[in-house]
């Protein structure tokens, strides 16, 4: 083997090395992901958990069960929100802002000396536990056009406490519904 042949071999080896390097540089340029850009596909958004605990689905407890464990003492405190407009006085005298609520449970709707709205006068029926419960959860949603400008108590247990207290405002409290 002469030096000319050695040079050819060395040249071939170098040539293929250069070729391999060149291919790897080009393929890096082609396939490496550009930095600092968004991933090429949407990532699922992280779910938001408040306090790390998933919100439990709302369980609807029937009113008779809530009433069975309701606390009229708590209710007495909660009706302070109603007392802005309503009187609970046994005399039955209304306030200018709302009808008297003494003995309201099982009382016919719009049956006191208060100047009721036409919507309330047209409602009909009586104020059983279920009816008051629904009305005070969302007054305008239940009696469209009512004069009662009260947003509503959204907490079912608190409404049951309110009902338990209203029940005591009677000479002859209406029996609680049986669960
Ligand atoms: C901003 C004043 C206001 C507040 C607060 C309010 N009410 Fe009333 N409520 C009224 C008015 C006014 C009426 C009469 C509505 C009508 O004629 O449309 C009424 C009517 C009622 C009636 C029907 C009475 C009847 O004789 O037919 C019930 C029951 C009642 N309210 C319960 C409550 C309870 C319980 C609360 C507290 C959780 C409450 N209201 C808070 C103003 C108010």
Question: How would you describe this structure to a colleague?
Answer:
With 179 residues, the chain is an all-alpha fold. The chain has a domain at 63-168: Cytochrome Bc1 Complex, Chain D, domain 2 (Orthogonal Bundle). 44% of the residues lie in helices and 0% in strands. The chain contains eight helices and no strands. It has helices at 3-31, 63-68, 72-78, 80-83, 118-123, 129-137, 139-142, 156-168. The longest helix is centred in the first third of the chain and has 29 residues, at 3-31. It is rod-shaped and about 130 Å long. The model has no long low-confidence stretch (mean pLDDT 87). It binds heme C. Heme C binds next to helix 4, helix 5 and helix 6.
Write the layout of secondary structure elements.
Blueprint: H1 3-31, H2 63-68, H3 72-78, H4 80-83, H5 118-123, H6 129-137, H7 139-142, H8 156-168
Helix pairs in contact: 3-8, 6-8
The structure holds heme C (HEC).
């Amino acid at each position: 083997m002469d030096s000319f042949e050695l040079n050819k071999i060395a040249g071939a080896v170098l040539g293929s090395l250069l070729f391999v390097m060149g291919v790897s540089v080009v393929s890096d340029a082609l396939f490496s992901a550009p930095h600092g850009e968004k991933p090429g596909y949407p990532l699922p958004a992280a779910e938001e958990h408040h306090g790390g605990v998933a919100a439990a689905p709302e369980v609807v407890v029937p009113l008779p069960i809530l009433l069975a464990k309701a606390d009229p003492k708590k209710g007495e405190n909660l009706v302070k929100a109603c007392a802005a407009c309503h009187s609970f006085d046994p005399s039955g005298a209304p306030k200018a802002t709302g009808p008297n609520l003494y003995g309201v449970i099982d009382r016919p709707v719009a049956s006191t000396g208060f100047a009721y709205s036409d919507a309330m006068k047209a409602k009909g029926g009586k104020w059983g536990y279920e009816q008051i419960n629904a009305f005070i959860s969302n007054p305008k949603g239940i009696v469209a056009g009512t004069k009662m400008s009260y947003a509503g108590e959204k907490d079912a247990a608190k409404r049951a406490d309110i009902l338990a207290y209203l029940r005591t405002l009677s000479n002859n409290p209406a029996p609680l519904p049986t669960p």
